[in-house]
Specification:
Elements: H1 3-15, H2 17-24, E1 27-28, H3 35-57, E2 64-66, E3 78-80, H4 81-91, H5 96-123, H6 132-154, H7 159-173, H8 179-187, H9 196-226, E4 237-240, E5 246-249, E6 260-261, H10 262-287, H11 293-296, H12 315-323, E7 330-332, E8 337-339, H13 341-363, H14 380-400, H15 402-409, H16 413-440, H17 447-451
Antiparallel strand pairs: 1-6, 2-3, 4-5, 7-8
Helix pairs in contact: 3-5, 3-10, 4-5, 5-6, 5-10, 6-7, 6-9, 6-13, 7-8, 7-13, 12-13, 12-14, 14-16, 15-16
The structure holds protoporphyrin IX containing FE (HEM).
């Protein structure tokens, strides 16, 4: 017996590699858009690795420390330790600037790929019976990813990020009944207080990543158990059966998944995606600067920067805060609970949106299990809902950038806001109408005709 065989035998006795071999033979449908989930996965791995590097140097404290690093304008000044440590990472730690940028761009790509992955699953109807649980787990992952990015944004404790993070604090305190307690737990009471950065740091490096790992594990186990959806086949397919002979798979037979074996074919494709993700992020980190904290300076509780902006993926929430008029606030009679416009915009509407997302597979309910993906062009109302949701989020994000829009158009934000609010309400309705009408056009045939039964 060769050494390799002996090693294999040793491992096989302990890990039952035959089972792994069976997994290696599992089919992965060859569909490029299925790689979006993998990109998200790889981004998470890279975030964890670069985060460990940053964790060696970052100091989660707002206590004053004398800065002795190489940024001339701060030398000898008393700075919050968190801010000073990010300056040190950026300008004094070898590879620090590169790794910080890499972590930043990986976070953006993580959220973007999750968003696109979610859209792919939505438009192809891959959430339908039996995959509703994975849609729900995925939605939790999307919320956690946004939470991770939000808590990380605050950590350098510079003027710009601290002010933007403060908006989240205000929204939290605006939650009826439990707002103050929640603000104490998450932000350590007032904002910014000496407890704010340690709390957000704890959430950012431990609580949220552990939850992401746990939910990801469930996401993957469900995926492996249920197998991938597969695109509608054009014809019957001849596939090598396990006994070595050829067996034709009927194009309608969804009990069998046709695709590349997990090992080695799909593993090779995944390796390419991994290295492409690594290369893209390296390129971005090498050439595109991020959040220039030396220019913003440390958090100054007395001042407010001209332009306060959250990251792009939180812009839609910021848009609700900016566009909803304050007269929406009301007090519930008898119990005397105050519901502010800030709460309605910052958490009420987003909460409702996520509730609809969670419930979606049960709204677009399917009695029988479906294992083929659907063609979005054959699903007029579902596709129309998807397109109008995208239009809604984009218009809400535009609302979040109303100050930039005001600069660009020469109008005041007071004039622009009602127009943007009207667009936010009418735009999605219009988008729904146009897409629905287009997909129902008699010339393209009805959904049933396009699908065909032959
Ligand atoms: C951290 C975030 C996430 C990661 C890393 C992740 C990863 C993956 C991967 C690798 C796959 C298999 C390949 C693919 O279909 O793309 C997958 C499938 C799936 N994901 Fe996610 N996902 C995440 C978030 C989400 C979200 C936000 C949703 C929806 C709300 C979702 C719903 C699904 C569903 C339903 C499947 C099965 C699709 C099918 O069989 O065609 N996932 N996910």
């Amino acid at each position: 017996m060769s050494l390799a065989q002996m090693l294999y035998q040793w491992a096989d006795d302990r890990f039952d590699l035959d089972d792994a071999e069976e997994f290696g033979g599992k089919a992965f449908p060859a569909e490029d858009s299925f790689l979006l989930g993998e990109i998200a996965l790889f981004c998470f791995v890279m975030l964890a690795l670069t985060g460990i590097f940053l964790g060696f140097f970052f100091e989660p404290s707002t206590s004053a420390t004398t800065y002795e690093g190489s940024v001339a304008k701060f030398q000898g000044e008393e700075l919050p330790a968190a801010f000073a440590s990010v300056l040190q990472i950026t300008y004094d730690v070898p590879f620090g600037m590169f790794i910080r940028r890499f972590h930043h761009w990986a976070a953006h790509l993580f959220v973007a790929s999750i968003g696109l992955h979610m859209l792919r699953v939505f438009f192809t109807g891959s959430y339908r019976n039996p995959r509703e649980p994975n849609w729900i787990v995925g939605t939790v992952l999307a919320i956690l990813a946004i939470g991770a990015a939000y808590t990380g944004y605050a950590l350098p404790f510079d003027e710009f990020a601290a002010t933007a993070t403060g908006i989240g604090f205000n929204v939290t305190t605006a939650i009826p009944v439990v707002g103050d307690i929640l603000a104490k737990v998450v932000f350590g009471g007032s904002f910014p207080s000496s407890a704010t950065i340690p709390r957000l740091y704890f959430l950012h490096v431990l609580v949220i990543p552990v939850l992401i790992v746990a939910f990801l594990a469930v996401h993957m186990v469900i995926l492996i158990r249920q197998k991938h959806t597969e695109a509608q086949r054009e014809d019957d397919i001849a596939s090598p059966a396990s006994d070595g002979g050829d067996r034709a798979v009927d194009r309608e037979d969804d009990t069998v998944v046709v695709g590349l074996p997990a090992f080695p074919n799909q593993a090779a494709v995944s390796a390419v995606v991994f290295f492409l993700t690594l290369a893209t992020l390296s390129l971005l980190a090498g050439f595109l600067p991020v959040h220039n904290i030396a220019a913003y300076g440390p958090n100054n509780p007395a001042g407010t920067p001209d332009l306060i902006m959250p990251d792009w993926f939180l812009m839609w929430l910021y848009g609700f805060l900016k566009l909803l008029p304050s007269w929406l606030s009301f007090t519930i009679p008898v119990v005397g609970i105050h519901v502010s416009a800030e709460f309605i915009g910052g958490l009420g509407i987003p909460g409702l949106i996520f509730l609809v997302i969670f419930a979606w597979p049960f709204i677009d309910r399917e009695e029988e299990p479906v294992h083929f993906t659907a063609d979005p062009l054959n699903r007029p109302w579902q596709t129309s809902v998807g397109v109008s949701a995208v239009v809604f989020i984009m218009l809400a994000s535009l609302g979040g950038m109303n100050n930039l829009a005001a600069r660009a158009t020469g109008l005041s934000t007071g004039t622009l806001n009602p127009l943007l609010l009207a667009a936010l309400i009418l735009g999605p309705v219009l988008a729904f109408g146009i897409v629905y009408r287009t997909l129902r056009e008699p010339s393209t045939g009805s959904a049933g005709e396009v699908l065909g039964d032959d």
